[in-house]
Amino acid sequence: MRALATLRIALRALLRNKMRTVLTMLGIIIGVAAVIAMVGIGNGAKSQIESQIASLGENVILVFSGNVTRGGVRSGWGGAGTLSIDDAGAIQREVPGVVSISPEVRSGAQVAAGNQNWSTQILGESPEYFDLRKWPIVEGADFSEQDVRSAGKVAVVGKTIVQQLYNGENAIGQIVRIKNVPFVIVGVLLAKGLSVQGQDQDDLIIIPYTSAMKRVQGVTMLRTINVQMAKPSLLNPGEQQIVELLRQRHRIVAGHDDDFTVRNQQEIADMATAQSKTMTLLLGAIAGVSLVVGGIGIMNIMLVSVTERTREIGIRMSVGARGRDILLQFLIEAVTLSAIGGLIGIGLGVATSQLLAARMHWPTLTSLSSVVVAFVFSAAIGIFFGFYPARKASQLDPIEALRYE
């Protein structure tokens, strides 16, 4: 029996009971749709986290102060001011491959402009910070090295500050008071929107780090040093060299803990995406259970079909159909059920992902690989769960089958 003829017979058999066929496919449809939608949500969250990490800039190493144990109490990243401006200068001079560096001082403050006030984040940085973070200025310009040397009262602000303090109007040249110290706004940053944690990235004011230390916070130590390397291959060697340099500068003897923490961009990305990867696998596994349930449904219906068509199988065998022809016929029916269900499920899953992205504002990313894997898995389910009923049909005794009522 030719394969094409077998396919036509299988399709006619499925169309004889349209409602039963649709209900049987429903398990596969829901399973494939759930897999694609859940994996899309997980991939979307992972992609958003990766884009946030990428916003740190390219080939970035972050040096955090802290990680100190005193009197049995251990402080974490940024928990103690242990980094100095001299440390930043030493890293730039002595670590090969350093392209740019930005000492960082971070704090929160209530700021005011005219009769408006707003609580925001204050960052003290160097002029290299904007290139290091690849954060362009859309209005005005950044501050200069001269502003850093003189602890100039100049500031670059995010879009949220412009909106909250100046009603979205031109802020260049305006005065913003930070802890009663007047700063002139010289630039406005490109809007970045919310971070993965829901924090407004545009709600900040960036001033020279010397101004932050002397005029705003009154401190002498840094909390973070941002270091940019020339290329990705220098991240790990650069991190090790920074650790060795700072241990030497801070006179940390062998066997004692560092009073700083060094992380490169890839390590931060791995830590940030580890949870989303686990969640994606968990969501995919849960959704995959419904595919297995759908496969069991196919097996159940195919067994019923074999029982109902026992006499028909006997007639086919009596006129020359071989066991493998019967096997192929029922196997094609099972695979057709799962394949059509898989195609419908793909469309439903993609549509569900788009709907969630539009209505719920959840980040979703439907990849071609997840679509292909879901479809291949659905077809494999049809083969796996359809083989037993097909084999049972092919092994029927023709004489007994003809006598079956």
Key words describing this protein structure:
two-stranded antiparallel ribbon; 12 strands; six-stranded mixed barrel; alpha+beta; elongated; 405 residues
What does this structure look like?
The chain is α+β, with helices and mostly antiparallel strands and 405 residues long. It has two domains: 3-52 and 273-403, no CATH class; 83-249, no CATH class. 56% of the residues lie in helices and 18% in strands. It is built from 13 helices and twelve strands. The strands form two sheets. A six-stranded mixed barrel has the order 4-5-10-7-9-8. It has a two-stranded antiparallel ribbon with strand order 2-3. A hairpin with a 2-residue loop joins strand 2 (69-70) and strand 3 (73-74). Helix 9 (265-308) packs across helix 11. The protein starts with a helix and ends with a helix. Residues 68-78 have low confidence and may be disordered.
Please list the strands of the largest sheet in the order they lie side by side: 4-5-10-7-9-8
Helix content estimate: 55-70%
How many angstroms separate the termini? 26 Å
Give the biggest sheet.
Answer: 6 strands, mixed, barrel
User: In percent, how much strand structure appears in the residues?
Assistant: 15-25%
Poorly predicted regions: 68-78
Number of helices: 13
Secondary-structure element series: HHEEEHEEHEHEHEEEHEHEHHHHH
Shape: elongated
Q: Could you say how many structural domains there are in total? A: 2
User: Helix- and strand-based class?
Assistant: alpha+beta
Rounded mean pLDDT is: 83
Rounded to an integer in angstroms, the radius of gyration calculated over CA atoms is 33 Å
- According to DSSP, the number of beta strands is 12
